[in-house]
Automatic annotation (TrEMBL):
Role: NDH-1 shuttles electrons from NADH, via FMN and iron-sulfur (Fe-S) centers, to quinones in the respiratory chain. The immediate electron acceptor for the enzyme in this species is believed to be ubiquinone. Couples the redox reaction to proton translocation (for every two electrons transferred, four hydrogen ions are translocated across the cytoplasmic membrane), and thus conserves the redox energy in a proton gradient.
Family per similarity comment: Belongs to the complex I 23 kDa subunit family.
Domain 4Fe-4S ferredoxin-type intervals: 44-73, 93-122
Any one annotated GO CC term: plasma membrane
Membrane topology: Peripheral membrane protein
Primary gene name: nuoI
Source species of the chain: Terracoccus luteus
Cofactor needs: [4Fe-4S] cluster
Subunit structure: NDH-1 is composed of 14 different subunits. Subunits NuoA, H, J, K, L, M, N constitute the membrane sector of the complex.
Protein name: NADH-quinone oxidoreductase subunit I
Binding sites annotated in the UniProt record for [4Fe-4S] cluster 2: C63, C102, C105, C108
Keyword Oxidoreductase attached: no
Amino acid sequence: MSERDGILPGLVRGLATTARSLTRHTHTAEYPDVSPALPPRSRGVIALTEENCTSCMLCARECPDWCIYIDSHKEELPPTTPGGRARQRNMLDRFAIDFSLCMYCGICIEVCPFDALHWSPEFEYAEVDIRDLLHERDRLGAWMATVPPPPALDPGSAVPAEVTAAAKPKRPAPAGAAPAARARPARPARTEGGGTPARPPRPRREAPTRELPVTPPVDATQVIPVTPPAPEAGPGTPDAGGPAPRLQPGEGGE
């Protein structure tokens, strides 16, 4: 053992290291006595805005872990204008997330078209029993208080369409003018039996007349000329195909 690796030099070096650490800032967070300083957009838990949820089931269908449970029913809303038509609306009965299955991918938050789900930096929701990690809408709604406000827009960026539509003034209605109703054709009156009256018969279209060519009658007594048969071709017939007869001297016309 060399003099450099002896007990005394090693003890001195250890005391020097301890003395240097006393003057440095500690990085150890004494949780839970001291809460850690998390980034404002850290992903802790998913919060729910129940008023924005329309039970469209889009988040439950897109969840790769199938850890979102939604139950709803339909209710009929009265018409907002006299003579209007009643409408139906989905009413949320249950919205629960099983955090023992959730892998915190955030797909449900991204696909929600009504901004009903948000990331919350809350992380203190550990339970002794894993079955208690199935949180209902009351617990999810309570976490909305921990959701930080959205970041401010970049300078020079376009104003969102939602802000522009909310700031647009409404058109003033003319004084004493009733809202114009769309004119509809009058319906035929019902008969005494309760049925609709019979429709008048439609005029029948006549087919256009077409003139056909007239063929003259054939006379049975008419004599049809008969063509005599052609004579048979012989050796002396000039029309025969055989060779012409040889003429003797003095038989010609000359």
